[in-house]
Write a structure and sequence with these properties.
The chain has a seven-stranded parallel sheet, sandwiched between helices. It has 258 residues and is an alpha/beta fold. Helix 3 runs parallel beside helix 4.
Amino acid sequence: MTVAIVTGAARGIGHATVEKLAKDGWDVVAVDLCADDPHVGYPLATRAELFALADAWPTVRGVVADVRDADALTGAVHVALDEFGRIDAAIAAAAIIAGGQPLWETEDKDWDALFDIGVRGVANLARAVIPAMLTGQEPRHGRFVALASAAGHRGLWRLAAYNAAKHAVVGLVRGLATDLRGTGITAVAVSPGSTDTPMLAASADLYGLGDIGEFAQHQLIDRILQPAEIAEVIAFLCSPSASSITGTVVHTDGGFTA
């Protein structure tokens, strides 16, 4: 039996990751805020989306929690331990997009939302889940995977705060992997390119684009990625086959950063 916690699970890449892991026989605690945020300029996932996902898979438990709330994530860890008895992987997929202005015009609310959800949320998950992983008997085989972005490696027009947040995720993962040296637990960042999610639609709105397909021109594969493609890579990184991969970034960006 293998057990994972996935944040940002109600839709997008997080949703696809829960489905992929469940199909592969994992037990999953699927975590999402399930509410709109006044500091985020587009609708976020709902309780209905989260619990429809949980209801579709008998091995999935839905938990409503805000990744900015460390105690709430500790509660999700307790759900995993109480329901399934262990934690083998944690996937930090919760994130938002904000911006659309030059950095000097970016408002504090946008900066704070990007870092509180997209960076502090990753750190909160690590601080909640790693101690539970470390209680496992040796040899341990834990996995921590955080969603970064091609924006963590390439500057994007009028999204400097988002760039900074995703760079921070990469740095966090590198430091975490170093802290985990010799424990048997790995830490990896995954950096997708433009992927067909509600967040990409929100990005198109920031740029005044009528179609997310316009982002495809930045990717060598000449198309928008699908969440399931990213989920496949995440599932691999959670598997025993990925035991040699830690402290680095896996670029699932369709050639965006080539």
